[in-house]
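TA notes, week 10

Several of you asked for a full example with nothing omitted. So below is the full record: structure tokens for the whole chain, then the designed sequence directly under it. When grading your own attempts, check the secondary structure regions first.
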């Protein structure tokens, strides 16, 4: 097995060239070797290497798309674990069962391939380890999956029939350093390219472009080997490399990503330069760019595509950046490895602050008390330094990259210190981030993940828990604070975003955060829709914890992303709708408001009756102005009235159309009138039925059976919801999940006992006791019905019995209608879902949808789709309308029951039945983000306590068009 020693060798690879800067463009010849390759999979690592020999006949092999992961192309299967290594923790050794993919590609040089010079074979990403041969000669091997590796190959090249052979192993010592929370996806997943390197071509170049905000000047110096000239025509720069030039410039920022096109010219090559002038530094305890403190409205981005895994095409990368920009996101942490270099080009061009993170995570050592952790073992330090260098050298010329991150969840150790020291030496222009070491000894930030609101507030005030070592404590206290991960976006949620943002905007030390995470890693699957952990029969897995993004796998924004966009909007408009004075606050870090145009509309019962343009001055960043709304139209005491204000792009930008809404606000004017409860009709008993005006009831049980002739079934108090991923999250405080406590209590199997059905001349009263088996806790529930013959009004009184210590999922009523009532309109918050601590994107208005459109397609089915603050709701089958009115209720409407939703594991498990289940809630439990983080804040919990709860609804049915 000696020839397998490289697999478990912990030092950097052999035969590769030193790392260098990625050029966004060059005039030298290049040949893409992406495309269809011959492929063979063997279940272990030691197979004969004869396939690499010249003349090997691979015609019996299959084909594979490169870049790509073989497990997503019909060979073997993907596997998901979060923290656990899916192999024994015995570094640096790997299992004998080590899926190994042999890749072969035969290529000719293009006829115009230049003679002479050097040639470089470049791999932008191979997981986890590759051994490479060209024309039968072994070039070397490398690890470091999401980092580039190059080999010099000129002497081996021939005009025709070059044979490139690459053996890729799923597991290597490098796997111990790549324990990120994601699918294990082996393969050549980024580009393979042959680059001509003429005599005198750029070996490496380093663009230093700083900005002095006091003088308004930028200084450019490009270091290059070999020396050459630097041209930036727009700035009149034509200078030698290595020489600094200072000229007046417009600075680069994520808000105003001003790039200057230039060229670096050496004897052998012209390299495109895209120069962004900016200076980033931590000073006065704040991270500043160009002299101004930043507020990161960030996300963590893994590279993911539901069909191709981490092999992303440029269109997908662009789509990610566009979606971020359109949702007010201004920063991205490249969790947890350097992304494809094109992504960073796009961040330069479109404007995002980037924390570039090294390809390093050893989280699985947590399971063994960090014994043997590579970052604490000096034998691994060269490998760690190699990773740091490959990241910094490749990405050092991107203005968007403002912070280097050493890696994620590696515990602590001297390897990290060595990386930080090397990076500071090589690139003192950028601060360093790492979250996992509370002493912050190697970093410029105090960074945390998932700290709850109270702790973040304490840190904001400088009142954090002190470190035992006074010196470290003092150093950390002087640091700016980041939440490198927060607001875990798994399933329905995250709740509590607005409360975090308020803290970030209150305390200067809190410079924002990065939501975990950008996209659900659900893999397209013929049976499951989107697959998650366990769906491929993995021995160990972490289920749907891999689906915790703001985008669904197909990149449709989830309600969480829409909420985030509203919560982080860079302009706020508040005031009193009655006096018409609006305070407009500019929360940008750099831009004034001149790129926005503001509009108002005046709405009556959710319908716009007038609209116009609001004159807002070009308020500078960080400042505010008061503006006056026009005089409102004549008052109408019966109607609910409000202003809706919008800030839109005044001109098309590189990332959105003119008119794109950046920010909005609604200011209520008048409250409107509640429908009086109708009365008058007397209950009439006939056979087994009681009729009360528009309502028909079961005389024995008092259950509602029909309204206005529309059959109703399953009517009753409802307290259950299909637990969300956040409901299922383990609470730090109680050691169990709220959903587990709900189930233990039996909230999913409440029994309804009828104690009395009482007819009075003007009302029908039904007294019940709603309680789970095996418990003496109960909700005494009294339904009081009245009707005027057309409207049926319900009053519900809930009186708890016993000591309720667990919040309820919901409190409302449920009823089943014929499934044909599938078109819905309502006056309330919309168009999307909203819960007590989510729904910042929902606006008050009149909305309509069909029932299918009300469902939010969370990858693992769970409570979803509730529309909040409804004043009325209508459902129609096209002939008749079933109408509900109430005081700010929320509703869900689904063609399956809560039990079906609760039982479903994947979306295709949900099949429409013949009942439309309508849930009308007076109150609901919030969402929180306890799937990884704090639970629901106290003010958003549905506490039962000993108080009585009352709520009411009116039901009407009318004929005619909907
Ligand atoms: C944190 C990880 O950094 C991230 O990769 C992801 O796993 C996230 O959690 C949860 O989805 S680590 C955790 C111990 C807080």
């Amino acid at each position: 097995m000696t020839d397998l020693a490289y697999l478990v060798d912990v030092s950097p690879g052999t035969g590769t060239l030193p790392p260098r800067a990625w050029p966004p463009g060059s005039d030298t010849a290049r040949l893409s070797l992406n495309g269809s390759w011959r492929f063979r999979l063997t279940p272990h690592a030691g197979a004969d290497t004869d396939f690499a020999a010249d003349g090997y006949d691979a015609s019996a092999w299959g084909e594979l798309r490169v870049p790509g992961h073989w497990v997503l192309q019909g060979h073997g299967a993907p596997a998901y674990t979060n923290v656990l290594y899916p192999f024994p923790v015995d570094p640096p050794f790997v299992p004998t069962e080590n899926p190994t993919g042999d890749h072969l590609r035969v290529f000719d040089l293009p006829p115009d391939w230049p003679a002479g010079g050097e040639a470089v074979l470049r791999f932008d990403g191979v997981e986890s380890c590759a051994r490479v041969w060209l024309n039968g000669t072994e070039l070397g091997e490398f690890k470091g999956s999401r980092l580039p590796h190059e080999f010099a190959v000129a002497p081996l090249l021939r005009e025709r029939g070059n044979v490139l052979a690459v053996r890729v192993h799923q597991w290597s010592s490098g796997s111990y350093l790549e324990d990120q929370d994601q699918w294990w996806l082996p393969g050549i997943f980024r580009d393979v390219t042959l680059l001509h390197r003429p005599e005198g071509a750029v070996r490496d170049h380093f663009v230093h472009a700083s900005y002095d905000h006091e003088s308004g000047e930028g200084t450019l110096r490009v270091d290059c080997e070999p020396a050459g000239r630097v041209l930036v025509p727009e700035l009149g720069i034509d200078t030698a490399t290595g020489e600094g030039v200072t000229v007046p410039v417009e600075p680069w920022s994520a808000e105003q990503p001003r790039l200057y096109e230039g060229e670096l010219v050496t004897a052998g090559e012209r390299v495109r330069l895209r120069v962004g002038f900016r200076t980033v530094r931590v000073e006065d305890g704040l991270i500043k760019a160009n002299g101004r403190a930043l507020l990161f409205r960030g996300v963590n981005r893994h590279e993911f595509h539901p069909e191709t895994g981490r092999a992303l095409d440029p269109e997908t990368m662009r789509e990610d950046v566009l979606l971020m920009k359109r949702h007010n996101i201004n920063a991205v942490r490249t969790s947890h490895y350097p992304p494809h270099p094109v992504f960073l080009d796009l961040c330069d061009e479109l404007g995002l602050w980037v924390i570039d993170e090294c390809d390093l995570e050893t989280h699985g050592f947590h399971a063994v008390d960090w014994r043997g952790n590579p970052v604490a073992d000096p034998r691994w330090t060269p490998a760690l330094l190699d990773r740091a260098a490959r990241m910094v050298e490749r990405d050092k010329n991107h203005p968007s990259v403002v912070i280097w991150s050493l890696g994620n969840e590696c515990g602590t150790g001297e390897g990290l210190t060595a990386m930080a020291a090397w990076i500071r030496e090589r690139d003192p222009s950028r601060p360093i981030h790492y979250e996992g070491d509370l002493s912050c000894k190697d970093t410029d930030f105090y960074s945390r993940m998932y700290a709850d609101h109270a702790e973040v507030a304490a840190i904001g005030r400088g009142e954090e828990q002190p470190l035992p070592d006074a010196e470290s404590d003092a150093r950390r206290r002087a640091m700016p604070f980041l939440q490198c991960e927060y607001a875990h976006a798994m399933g329905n949620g995250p709740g509590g975003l607005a409360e975090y943002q308020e803290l970030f905007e209150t305390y200067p030390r809190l410079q924002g955060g990065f939501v975990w995470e950008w996209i659900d890693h659900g893999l397209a699957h013929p049976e499951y829709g989107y697959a998650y952990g366990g769906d491929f029969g993995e021995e160990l897995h972490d289920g749907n914890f891999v689906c915790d993004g703001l985008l669904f796998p197909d990149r449709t924004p989830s309600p969480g992303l829409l909420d985030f966009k509203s919560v982080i909007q860079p302009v706020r408009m508040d005031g009193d709708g009655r006096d018409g004075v609006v305070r407009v606050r500019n929360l940008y870090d750099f831009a004034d408001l001149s790129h926005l145009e503001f509009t108002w509309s005046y709405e009556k019962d959710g319908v716009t009756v007038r609209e116009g343009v609001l004159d807002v001055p070009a308020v500078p960043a960080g400042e505010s102005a008061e503006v006056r709304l026009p005089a409102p139209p004549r008052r109408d005491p019966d109607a609910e009235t409000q202003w809706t204000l919008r800030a839109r792009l005044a001109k098309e930008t590189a990332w959105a159309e003119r008119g794109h809404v950046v920010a909005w606000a609604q200011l209520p004017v008048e409250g409107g009138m509640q429908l009086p409860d109708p009365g008058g009709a007397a209950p009439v008993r006939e056979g087994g039925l009681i009729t009360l005006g528009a309502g028909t009831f079961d005389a024995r049980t008092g259950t509602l059976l029909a309204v206005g002739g529309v059959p109703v079934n399953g009517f009753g108090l409802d307290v259950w919801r299909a637990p969300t991923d956040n409901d299922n999250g383990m609470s730090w405080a109680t050691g169990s999940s709220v959903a587990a406590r709900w189930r233990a209590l039996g909230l999913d199997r409440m029994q309804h006992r009828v104690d009395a059905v009482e007819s009075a001349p003007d009302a029908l009263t039904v007294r019940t006791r709603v309680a789970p088996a095996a418990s003496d806790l109960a909700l005494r529930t009294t339904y009081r019905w009245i009707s005027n013959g057309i409207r049926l009004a319900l009053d519900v009184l809930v009186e708890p019995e016993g000591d309720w210590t667990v919040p309820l999922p919901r409190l409302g009523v449920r009823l089943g209608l014929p499934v044909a009532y599938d078109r819905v309109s309502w006056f309330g918050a919309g168009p999307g879902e909203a819960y007590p601590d989510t729904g910042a994107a929902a606006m008050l208005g009149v909305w309509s949808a069909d029932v299918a459109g009300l469902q939010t397609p969370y990858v693992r089915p769970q409570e979803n789709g509730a529309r909040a603050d409804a004043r009325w709701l209508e459902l129609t089958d096209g002939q008749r309308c079933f109408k509900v009115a109430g005081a700010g209720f929320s509703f869900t409407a689904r063609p399956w029951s809560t039990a079906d939703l609760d039982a479903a594991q994947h979306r295709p498990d949900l099949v429409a039945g013949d009942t439309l289940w309508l849930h009308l809630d007076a109150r609901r439990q919030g969402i929180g983000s306890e799937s990884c983080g704090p639970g629901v804040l106290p003010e958003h919990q549905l506490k039962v306590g000993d108080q009585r709860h009352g709520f009411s609804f009116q039901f009407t049915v009318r004929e005619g068009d909907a």
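The domain at 684-959 is CATH 2.70.98.10 (Beta-galactosidase; Chain A, domain 5). Use that as a sanity check on your answer.
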